[in-house]
């Protein structure tokens, strides 16, 4: 226990915590997108997927608890690192050069906080269903995710907030990968550059995938289907 406390108290320990929790959250982001994109296959497909998930409530809540704990640890540790880095820079006469894109680096903490607020709203919106009374009387019953998602994204403000959050997520992932590579000690310039470009490509693919759903709803390419 002392070792873990000592490790977490060090700068490299915090970086490892941020890196590992970040990788776990990226895995969830990819898996969540795969599930969400089933909405384009019609109401039966995505509703069966939702029903399958809810048929294992204990496992589902364990996964949610692990993800929430990982997210909290990721955000809390990132803020601690940011505060420590700011204090260290104040004592330095020169700032060390960084290979991270400046816009992404400067907005890392801010984008993380915006994403955190979005996650809270997203859970209240689609999981707790406390923001839209229409979600309590869906035509296909409790697991009619197809109708619920379309009704939710018909609101331009909701879709706009979703698109902004996904865009910030893309920037966050783009910079986050570089931080992970530094933490893992990948110092080869050619390998680092290749992985960075690959990470940026994956980030924008994720953005396109997530953005496709609200855009399709706003363009009436996805509409509520009568049962």
Question: Gist?
Answer:
The protein has 227 residues and is mainly alpha-helical. Helix content is 76%, strand content 0%. α2 (11-36) packs across α4 (57-90), α2 (11-36) crosses α8 (156-183) and α4 (57-90) runs antiparallel to α6 (108-127).
Task: Itemize the secondary structure elements and their pairings.
Elements: H1 2-9, H2 11-36, H3 43-54, H4 57-90, H5 102-106, H6 108-127, H7 145-153, H8 156-183, H9 189-218
Written overview of the protein:
The chain has 227 residues and is an all-alpha fold. The protein has a single domain, classed as 3 helical TM bundles of succinate and fumarate reductases (Up-down Bundle), CATH 1.20.1300. Helices cover 76% and strands 0% of the residues. The protein has nine helices and no strands.
**How many domain modules?**
1
Counting copies of identical and different chains, the oligomeric state is: single chain
The CATH topology is given as 3 helical TM bundles of succinate and fumarate reductases
Radius of gyration: 20 Å
Give the distance, in angstroms, between the N- and C-terminal Cα atoms.
Answer: 56 Å
Helix content: over 70%
Tell me the name of the CATH homologous superfamily. Answer: Fumarate reductase/succinate dehydrogenase, transmembrane subunit
Largest sheet: none
Low-confidence residue ranges: 97-101
Structural class, from secondary structure content? Answer: mainly alpha
CATH architecture: Up-down Bundle
Average residue-wise pLDDT: 85
Q: Bin the strand percentage.
A: under 5%
Shape: elongated
By DSSP (H or I, 4+ residues per run), the number of helices equals 9
Number of E-state strands = 0
CATH class: Mainly Alpha
- SSE string, helices as H and strands as E: HHHHHHHHH
